[in-house]
Amino acid sequence: xxFIQDFLHKVRPNFEKGGKYEKFFYIYEAHxxxxxxxxDTTKSQxxxxxxxxxxxxxxxxxxxxxxxxxxxxxxxxxGHQHFLxxxxxGAFLDKIIFGAWYVLPVVVVSYATGLTIEFTFATxxxxxxxxxxxxxxMLIPLIMPPNIPLWxxxxxxxxxxxxAKEVFGGTGMNILNVAMTARAFxxxxxxxxISGEVWTxxxxxxxxxxxxxxxxxxxxASTQAGSVGDAFTSNWNADMFSYSxxxxxxxxxxxxxxxxxxxxxxAAILIFSGIGSARIxxxxxxxxxxxxxxxxxxxxxxxMDMPAHYHWVMGGLAFGAVFMATDPVSGTHTDTGKWIYGxxxxxxxxxxxxxxxxxxxxxxxxxxxxxxxxxxxxxxxVQSNKKRRLSRAxx
Length: 395
Description:
Elements: H1 2-15, H2 25-35, H3 56-86, H4 92-125, H5 133-142, H6 150-164, H7 178-189, H8 216-222, H9 228-233, H10 243-248, H11 260-272, H12 278-298, H13 302-305, H14 310-313, H15 317-324, H16 335-355, H17 363-393
Helix pairs in contact: 1-2, 3-4, 3-5, 3-11, 4-5, 4-6, 5-7, 6-7, 7-17, 11-15, 12-15, 12-16, 16-17
């Protein structure tokens, strides 16, 4: 790393005030601080100085590390679903290579588009490059179908970064989760490319007899008679939608959302590092289970009769609970507010899934809706705390 540091120090004068690349200083600084801890210190002489061992970039890197299991499993599963659907029986390495061929370009386009916009805004506004897109740039590919057109990834990323983030002032100012905004944009602008049977890359190869690329949620939502379990086992691959398969993630779906196991590994990293909120993650799962139990009692349709714990492993609930709902910017900040926020996201997710078959993946709309209400929840929690303390003071 010493040669990188020496090179950066050598070219730094060109980007400082008076240098020929002065206007690109913040782009230079973004790359420098990506590799090395900033040497900046507080100029004020008063007060106690406490130096933290982690800054925003390092925090974002920890979140990316937590997403690596989802990314790696997603790459393998894209290849696995292809060979399963075509009956070719590819080896483990063949599945990895095939999956990487489709997944990595989506990641590259997401980062290239988003960082270009970030650098442009930083240069125009003359401020430091926001680090938030380090995480968003990975989240967006993981919630996309594997065969999504790359131009749509670029368009959705640009839309989300500009209209859901930069117009509000950049990192730390956005109201909505940026990655979920990108997915919502594509869902409503180009629904045929992000819904239906678009979750398996066939690459022009004929499928096996009876093949269906539908997700578990799509099958459950379309079940009209009998149980959802019967609909799962009568599918073209009877073992595909068993609870263990859904938990591990060997099912069609978005690139990084299918594996609940991989999401839980990420949750452990975020919780033990102190970056993710265990309150929100736990209450999202609890809220989904609670709403599932309520629907079991109603039993008005086969989807309602589905065991409540199946909601935990279907669709992107686990991914949304771990990586979307815990967004420290668009989520709640008070401890009590986090319990309420997570509970409502979980309940709304199942509510949307069951009552609106047009939106079988309810976590997207649930997170975005609760992003809007998060400040209101925090406000009333703070007001309640104030009233309680004032009532104690007057006793």
